[in-house]
UniProtKB/TrEMBL annotation:
Biological function: Catalyzes the 1,3-allylic rearrangement of the homoallylic substrate isopentenyl (IPP) to its highly electrophilic allylic isomer, dimethylallyl diphosphate (DMAPP).
Name used for this protein in its record: Isopentenyl-diphosphate Delta-isomerase
One cellular component term from this protein's GO annotations in UniProt: cytoplasm
Cofactor: Mg(2+); Mn(2+)
Annotated source species: Glycomyces luteolus
Keyword Amino-acid biosynthesis: no
Location in the cell: Cytoplasm
Reactions performed catalytically: isopentenyl diphosphate = dimethylallyl diphosphate
Family: Belongs to the IPP isomerase type 1 family.
Protein keywords: Cytoplasm, Isomerase, Isoprene biosynthesis, Magnesium, Manganese, Metal-binding
Sequence positions that bind Mn(2+): 27, 34, 71, 115, 117
The gene coding this protein: idi
Amino acid sequence: MGEATEKVVLLGEDGAPIGSERKDRVHGAATPLHLAFSCYGFDAEGRLLVTRRALGKRAFPGVWTNTCCGHPGPGEFMEAAVSRRLRSELGIEARDLVCALPTFRYRAESNGVVENEICPVYLCRVAGEPAPDAEEVAGHDWVDWPAYVARATRADSDLSPWSRLQVAQLQQWGLVERFLNG
């Protein structure tokens, strides 16, 4: 489903759904608050799959970030949306999917496009080598979590603003370590 037909869930300031709108009409200079998700996928060795956003993306093109991000459609369960996005964007399946940061919220701007999202953060296990959709992903790599944390916390970090904020919260509570060791 493309941006012209994909719908996102609009939210009130309290986080309650207030409607839906086409994705291509939502992301702009005055982006309304809407529902999204971020996912961090780890392999059997505990390495994180990181991706580089496609250069054709309107917001944050070419930026390195977590495994994947997306939006649930109206009425779609969040876990189903995360699994759908991992399959369509990277050709991989999620296992042991858990919501680590259910109330994460951020706002960021790139090239006049504002992201304004309540964006629950998920952790999961993934197996196999990704087969990225070139429209979505320009590159990928497997990195150790401590190296990703170090990269995210550098002042000159090349990672997406949402991932830097998410990593800080995941680290604060030791959520990734608990997930990997649990």
